[in-house]
Structures are given as structure tokens and as C-alpha cells.
Amino acid sequence: MVIRQFHPADELAVIQLWMHCGLIVPQNNPRADIERKLWVSPELFLVGTVGEEIVASVMAGYDGHRGSINYLAVAPEYQHNGYGRALVEHVEAILHDCGCPKINLCVRTSNQSVIAFYQRLGFVCDPVITMSRRLVADQPFELVVEYEEDVTNSH
């Protein structure tokens, strides 16, 4: 797998990857999330490719205090090949070089296989509660049919 920076032309393939991995939830519009990331540290939005195919992604961040990992995804048919680990290690190296002392991430408590993945990489469950407050309500992501049609028509 080759790791490179996300390019705007990758949007469709990345959203399809996220859909395939079950990362898209109603309260987060993936197009809006991508647009936001391209405004803030776009160099920390990475994809993994095998040949020309995007098979993995990760959005990382650093606010000067803590790093973060979001949207880590590996296509199910490519999982268990070390690609997720490679992306995490790549992001860790970048963040370390920026002076980042710690990485935080959020995983739904119901997603035990992902929690186990991160634990194998040395992440621990901190005794904290994650709290949030939405400042902007995303428009619902209703372009799934459009994307599916694009894929169908391109073959």
C-alpha cells in the first residue's frame, strides 16, 4: 500500500470507502467533513492505495496540545494486511515530528473489534468521558444514490 495525501479527485472513492466500512452516520455529512478538513491541515488527510484503488484513509489533526485520528478506514477485503497499522504509524510519525505528545481518538463502545485493533497498537482506554456539542448541523447526506449511480455508470 502506498500512503499519500488526499486529493479532491479522491472524494467519491473515499466516501464510498467510508460507506463500505460503516463510518458514515446521519449526523455527519462526509462531503462537509472532507471540505472542512481541506481547510484545516489538509496534509493530515491521507489515503492508502493499492495500484490505482483507494483502499484506506485517515484524517489526523493536531491542535498544539493533542493529536487526533478520525475516519481511519480500510476496505474490508484489505483488512488484516497491516494497512490500518501502517496508516496509524505514518500519522504518529508526522504528529511526533510536529511535537505532538499524545493522540486521542473516539471509538463507539459498541465497536469492540476496532477497540481491540487500537489496543493492539498500544492505545489505552483513558478514564474520561468524551463530551460534544454540535455547533453546525450538517445537511443530511442524501447523495448515496447519486454515488451508486456514478459507480454503476462508470463500468
From TrEMBL:
Give the matching CDD domains: NAT_SF (cd04301)
Q: Report the residue ranges that make up the N-acetyltransferase domain in this protein.
A: 1-148
Do the record's keywords include Lyase? no
What domain of life does the UniProt record list for this protein's source? Answer: Bacteria
Which keywords appear in this protein's UniProt record, sorted alphabetically? Acyltransferase, Transferase
Pfam families assigned to the protein according to its UniProt record, in alphabetical order: Acetyltransf_1 (PF00583)
Classification via PROSITE patterns: GNAT
> What molecular functions are annotated in GO for this chain?
acyltransferase activity, transferring groups other than amino-acyl groups
Q: SUPFAM superfamilies recorded for this chain? A: Acyl-CoA N-acyltransferases (Nat) (SSF55729)
Q: NCBIfam families recorded for this chain?
A: PRK03624.1
The name this protein carries in UniProt is GCN5-related N-acetyltransferase
Q: Which species is this UniProt entry from?
A: Chthoniobacter flavus Ellin428
